[in-house]
Specification:
Layout lengths: L1 H27 L4 H25 L1 H9 L4 H20 L7 H11 L2 H4 L7 H10 L11 H7 L6 H8 L3
Helix pairs in contact: 1-2
Protein name: DUF4405 domain-containing protein
Keywords: Membrane, Transmembrane, Transmembrane helix
Organism: Magnetovibrio blakemorei
Amino acid sequence: MQHLLKTYGTTFTVGLFIVSTVSGVFLFFHIAAPAFHGMHEWLSMVLIVPVAIHIWKNWTGLLGYFKRKTIYMPLVASIFAGFAFAYPSLSSSSSGGNPLRATVHAVQGGTINQVAPLYKLSPEALKARLQAKGYTVASFDQPIVDIAKASGKDEGPDLMAAIAFPE
């Protein structure tokens, strides 16, 4: 087992770092974000394991950075950079997370009567659009998320696409 860990700890770190980097660049430039979002989040979490193995494998070398005091500036700079990005959200009185996600949740929780005008549609037109895509609509006052559940459909991106796009 120790041989396996020492053999693959660094190589998996490199491989997953490449995947995380490529997916992060695509997300940064908003290219094919739905394809890369889950990949980036989950494989970045998986990356923790080989990084921990890599650190364990190279512990003596890492301690040398502390002895030479060459690790402190990069650590402080990294923590500061992270804090600089997090601070605006953490310090805002309206800090409730990602505003886009809040908007999506508001649309999903809204009724056809409430959501249709957002897309410049009548409630009847939105109902017809959803029905054309296989959703069962019982009432104009039924929350959109309940329509998806009752129809046995996904409540996420597929539902939002069904609302937003005619075809």
